[in-house]
Amino acid sequence: VKDVAKWFKKGDHSILKLIHHDMNCQIFDRVMPILTFFGGLLFSCILPIALIVIDKNNSKLVGFELIMTLVLSAIVVQVLKKIVGRIRPFNQFDDVNNLHSELKDYSFPSGHTTAGFAIAMTLMLNIPGMKILLVIALGIAVSRIYLGVHFPTDVLFGAIIGWYTASVVHIMFWNDVIGYFR
Questions:
Q1: 123, 133 in Cβ contact below 8 A?
Q2: How far apart are CA 149 and CA 59, in angstroms?
């Protein structure tokens, strides 16, 4: 177990350095905060409400499914943050620029990445041809590392949580919830 932890820690630091130092440029300084917005609370609230209000081609049901996914994944993220208690990179390393606001909570797992993958997976499972959303979700994950607020394993586990909760909720929603009303 200690060897695995060392391996993850070494990998985290290597990838953090690669993304944070070797990719550092003015274009990314502008693009990454925009990408990170799509995994944030505001967007995560607006999108499902918009789908419910639009109410075309099952978008209302997709909106409700998305709310269930985002709530479940947020609960998992908050519980893990409290259990693990990992300090953010910008609080550990002097050479990590913090282009984001000072965050007071813990780093592991990434809530923005979780939301990004939860949104992408929910929409992909319900709307054909939405695979481009995985690219955006990956962009959100990279942005969190670039902004100095997460380690690579934070975003990796965030992606897994988002993907998994979206998959589980999708199966339960369409089989159990909607099936109950049919």
A1: yes
A2: 33
pLDDT for 95: 65
CB contact at 8 A, 126 and 62: yes
Determine contact, residues 131/123, Cβ cutoff 8 Å: no
Cα separation, 119 vs 127, whole angstroms: 12
For 120-132, what is each residue's pLDDT tens digit?
A: 999 999 988 888 9
Query: Cα(60)–Cα(53) distance, rounded to whole angstroms?
Result: 7
Q: How far apart are CA 105 and CA 66, in angstroms?
A: 25
User: Dihedral (C-alpha) 175, 178, 179, 182: value to the nearest 10 degrees?
Assistant: -160
What are the φ/ψ torsions at residue 23 (nearest 5 degrees)? -95, 0
Distance CA 7, CA 158 (A): 19
Rounded CA separation 124/118 (Å): 10
Q: Quote the DSSP letter at residue 149.
A: S
Tell me the two tokens of residue 125: 């499972």
